[in-house]
Specification:
Chain lengths: 216, 343
């Protein structure tokens, strides 16, 4: 119920457009999604765990992510609101129903462990601080204030970031800093990412990757 | 002034927690520099600028281990007040829902100020309040609850956290305090409910929900509700429209303070303040009578007892929210120092 309400608000305020708004409301079918996800497994793996690629482009874990969040990202890749050459091509191969199906398929998988973020204890402690308390002296609010008490995600708007690959989180935060990603509602992530130092980004990505998410 | 500069120099060299100094352009603390860069006013000459210590500073301090434990407990209560749900708290709020940055943040009613300015006379209840009574007021109104008892473990822990945050600040300061309260932007000539509603949907609803119920997920607090049964009751300071406007302008949307114009902040505050919430614990049983009694000291700047958006009178009800029944805050109308007053 509540998540639908947030979807409604999101569509309205982003001007996502009627077509996309309707598509996001499509009921996904995980079984059909498995069939449609044939091209996804090469990078995101059969268990949805994705892969941390040190120094390269890490592929995010999709397992256990919110279905509507996944669907929105796919629509955003298709519509050019989120930039990624390979994802744009793959998303373009999916119609609205397939997007809903694939999203349902991955959302039902148990959350897998994340890799990356091999940092020292000092940096890990800094990461924990940013994730749980923030650094208000830099006006960096904590991750958990939007991503939820354990950073496991809130509704369909704020994705789970605990147990996500460090390389992926780093890359995304840097993309927001550089205005290369901007499909977040109201620039909520962008505003904060721009206040983070390189070290902050490395630290918080490492700490989040180190967090296990209990399966329901 | 020269002394202050020395203090800061020492502080930055040794990371001393709890720095206070009178404002001087040359000695801006990095935290204040961040604020000024973001568009907050710079401290005025002579204003008291206090940088409260952090929890990391607490660990590094020489305080007795048991004292640290109690301050940690106070921090935990402040940031997760929901653990007192059903006992002292009957809504979906934490202290830190409104006092951002764990009570340390300027322009977000930093709570250390209470620790250095109380005991003091308070118009809201017409007598001298100490820190405990001030915190009790937050429970009675903002948490729509029943305050922990004076001297109880929880009250002691909360006051200890407040006083820890005030470390190094002068007691009963003569100077005005930089970033105190929720300073309201200039009130525009006209306030628009319709505009406020549209702005709320556009800027606030994504977290706080279109119906104002905030967001609770799997039984856990995520985003606080700006109105309704899960919100503060009609007696909380933030029901005053200027206070709500000050909170919004200086703190919302989270991470993007000062991004709304003064008019926008006021319109959203007006819209939010026109919605229903649990009854003011000072309710006499009659909204007009309550307004008459507490108008001069409080409700003259709220919409209590005024005509609401649908023509109904706001707060004309005996809905106490989850609290279920009326709980009179004992600090209202309680005679204090009768003998002294009689003199």
């Amino acid at each position: 119920m509540t998540s639908k309400r947030i979807t409604g608000g999101l569509g309205l305020l982003l001007g996502v457009g009627l077509a996309a708004g309707q598509a996001m409301a499509l009921e996904g079918d995980a079984e059909r999604g498995q069939a449609a996800a044939g091209t996804c497994v090469a990078c995101h793996q059969a268990d949805g765990s994705g892969m941390n690629v040190p120094g390269g482009e890490s592929w995010p874990r999709l397992a256990g992510m919110d279905a509507d969040y996944i669907a929105k990202q796919l629509h955003d890749f298709k519509g050019g609101r989120r930039q990624n050459a390979s994802m744009m091509a793959f998303a373009n191969m999916l119609d609205d129903q397939q997007i809903a199906d694939v999203a349902a398929y991955y959302s039902e998988m148990p959350v897998t462990a994340a890799q990356g973020g091999d940092v020292d204890d000092v940096l890990l402690a800094r990461g924990e601080q940013l994730a749980l308390r923030g650094d208000w002296d830099q006006y960096i609010v904590s991750c958990k204030s939007c991503h939820g008490p354990r950073n496991e995600g809130v509704g369909d708007t704020f994705p789970g970031i605990a147990s996500q690959h460090a390389g992926y989180i780093e890359k995304q935060l840097r993309a927001w800093q550089a205005d290369e990603r901007g499909n977040d509602p109201q620039n909520l992530m962008g505003a904060i990412a721009k206040r983070m130092s390189d070290e902050d980004i490395t630290a918080v990505a490492a700490w989040l990757a180190s967090q296990a998410v209990a399966s329901e | 002034m020269k002394l202050n500069r020395t203090t800061l120099a020492v502080a930055s060299a040794t990371v001393v927690a709890g720095i206070s100094l009178a404002a001087s352009a040359e000695t801006l603390h990095p935290a204040v520099e961040t604020l000024v860069e973001m568009g907050y006013p710079a401290p005025l000459e002579g204003e008291l600028v206090h940088i409260p210590p952090t929890m990391a500073d607490l660990e590094a301090s020489d305080l007795h281990p048991e004292t640290k434990q109690v301050i940690r407990r106070g921090y935990d209560l402040f940031t997760n007040t929901q653990q007192l749900r059903g006992e002292n708290v009957y809504n979906d709020m934490n202290c830190s829902s409104c006092h951002l940055g764990e009570g340390r943040q300027p322009f977000s009613a930093p709570v250390w100020a209470a620790a250095v300015t109380l005991p003091n006379y308070r118009g809201k209840n017409d007598h001298v309040n100490n820190l405990e009574e001030r915190i009790a007021g937050c429970f009675a109104y903002s948490m729509n609850g029943v305050p922990p008892e004076y001297g109880s473990d929880d009250m002691l822990a909360l006051t200890a956290y407040h006083q820890w945050l005030a470390k190094g600040a002068p007691m009963y300061p003569d100077q005005p305090i930089y970033g105190r309260g929720f300073p309201a932007p200039d009130r525009p000539d006209e306030l628009s409910y319709e505009n406020g509603e549209a702005l709320y949907v556009e800027n606030c609803a994504i977290c706080h929900s279109e119906d104002g119920s905030g967001y609770y997920q799997n039984g856990e607090y995520v985003f606080p509700p700006p109105w309704g049964d899960g919100s503060n009751n009609w007696g909380a300071g933030i029901v005053r429209v200027h206070t709500a406007a000050g909170f919004i302008k200086n703190n919302m949307p989270l991470g993007q303070p000062l991004s709304l114009s003064d008019q926008e902040a006021w319109d959203i505050a007006y819209y939010m303040s026109s919605q229903e919430r649990p009854q003011d614990p000072r309710y006499t049983g009659d909204v007009a009578e309550t307004l008459e009694r507490f108008g001069p000291s409080f409700h003259r700047t709220s919409l209590y007892g005024q005509e609401g958006p649908n023509g109904e009178i706001l707060a004309d009800h005996a809905n106490w929210g989850e609290k279920g029944d009326e709980v009179k805050p004992w600090n209202i109308g309680q005679p204090r120092f009768k003998e002294l007053k009689a003199q």
